[in-house]
Amino acid sequence: MGRKSYKFKSSGLRKKENRKLRNQKVITRPIGIKTPIALGKEEGDLYAVHVNPADQLKDNLRNLIQTNFGERIGRPEYGANLISIVFDLGAAENFIKEASIKIDNAIKKYIPAITFKNVSINNSETIQTANISQRIPGDSTGLALLDLRILFDIPALRLQNQKIDVLIYVGG
């Protein structure tokens, strides 16, 4: 009985063939539509899209925080529902505490890939001690603009200390 012979002709690439693989064009695939919705700049794209997972998660987080209960069709409990506390803003500390709880609960429920750290008021000139002081120019309704800064991590993508700023109208 003779020995089996093995042939390795199809088991790899030669050096000159390997060079062709290094210079291949990277194809990016769309992950989701950017908000606010805009027309796409690339040929064949109807809308502007995200190709980076971190950007898509940040966009999803901003939409989650700005959404109130009942605004999303088919998901009546989707969102952070900050409207329930923005019109009862008495003190900045209480607002931050309540907003942190609501944002943390929404993130844990709908975007578990994000680890919430904290929320703060971005512009210190907006709130003086306990009252809203910066009014929107030309607004007679008594609304003010509150700039919240949300700090978070995305452990799956190994991104630490990410932040987004969310603008919320405050009344009262």
Q: What is the tally of helical segments?
A: 4
Number of domains: 2
Order of helices and strands: HEEHHHEEEEE
* CATH class category label of the largest domain: Alpha Beta
Could you describe the largest sheet, including whether it forms a barrel? 3 strands, antiparallel
Q: pLDDT under 50 segments (min length 5)?
A: 124-138
Q: Name the helicity range.
A: 25-40%
CATH-defined fold name of the largest domain: Nuclear Transport Factor 2, Chain: A
Gap between N and C termini, in Å? 95 Å
Strand content: 15-25%
Defining traits:
172 residues; alpha+beta; Nuclear Transport Factor 2, Chain: A; 3-stranded antiparallel beta sheet; elongated
Explain this structure:
There is one protein chain. The protein is an alpha+beta fold. The chain has two domains: 13-51, no CATH class; 52-170, Nuclear Transport Factor 2, Chain: A (Roll). It is built from four helices and seven strands, in the order αββαααβββββ. The protein has helices spanning 15-22, 53-66, 83-86, 92-110, and strands spanning 32-33, 49-50, 115-121, 127-128, 131-132, 144-154, 159-170. The chain has a three-stranded antiparallel sheet with strand order 3-6-7, with helices on one face. Strands 1-2 form a two-stranded antiparallel sheet. A hairpin with a 4-residue loop joins strand 6 (144-154) and strand 7 (159-170). The longest helix is centred in the middle third of the chain and has 19 residues, at 92-110. It is elongated, with a radius of gyration of 25 Å. Mean pLDDT is 81; it is low at 124-138.
